[in-house]
Q: What sequence folds into this?
């Protein structure tokens, strides 16, 4: 089985001290190498998993293709709720999150503008560019670069971003798009407030490990 490691975060400047982080290393058979071709996919997909041979991590509201050799970092809230899953690779740290959206769509346009203003307020240089699914954000601060992609789906919005070294920005952006193409969003029929993050559920093996470590 794959190996787990856990650490309690030492109060980084941007996070309150009640948040926990757990690391998961893909060093065994928990995630087998993808057998399909992510480059050829036309996702993100809504609900139904395509018969494409791609191994995906089941997170409840998301089925996420994880690059071979990647590490997973789980961000937990006080109540044991999963706030985010980070996929760590040499080119950067990736995050994919799904949100509830109105039937009329268009949630990404407003969210994109708000995020751009927030990044500027944090001192980042931000510019907008047109990408595969519409508007994307590119940001840089110091030696770090960020790319943010948004996709409006049926009653959901998918937001994906990667942050990493400037010299890896092109590879990171390519990997982010590849990850988005292979992602499946499982919104379900339950009503959710607009802009509410869809809940993330950990696979049993990961959840049991975190619980055993005092998470």
A:
């Amino acid at each position: 089985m794959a190996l787990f490691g856990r650490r309690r975060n030492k109060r980084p400047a941007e996070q309150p001290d009640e948040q926990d982080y757990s690391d998961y290393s893909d060093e065994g058979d928990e995630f087998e190498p993808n057998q399909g071709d992510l480059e050829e996919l036309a996702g993100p997909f809504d609900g139904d998993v395509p018969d494409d041979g791609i191994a995906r991590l089941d997170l409840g509201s998301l089925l996420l293709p994880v690059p071979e050799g990647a590490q997973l970092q789980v961000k937990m809230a006080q109540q044991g709720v999963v706030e985010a899953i980070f996929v760590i690779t040499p080119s950067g740290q990736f995050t994919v999150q799904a949100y509830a959206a109105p039937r009329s769509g268009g949630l990404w346009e407003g969210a994109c503008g708000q995020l751009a203003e927030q990044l500027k307020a944090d001192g980042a240089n931000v510019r907008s560019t047109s990408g595969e699914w519409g508007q994307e954000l590119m940001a840089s601060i110091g030696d770090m670069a960020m790319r943010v992609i948004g996709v409006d789906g049926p009653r959901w919005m998918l937001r994906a971003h990667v942050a990493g070294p400037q010299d890896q920005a092109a590879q990171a952006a390519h990997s982010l798009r590849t990850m988005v193409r292979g992602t499946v969003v499982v919104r379900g029929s339950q009503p959710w407030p607009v802009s509410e993050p869809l809940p993330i559920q950990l696979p049993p093996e990961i959840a049991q490990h975190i619980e055993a470590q005092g998470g």
Summary: The longest strand covers residues 144-153. The chain has one domain: 3-212. Residues 2 and 28 are 4 Å apart (CA to CA). Helices lie at 107-121, 169-182, 204-212.
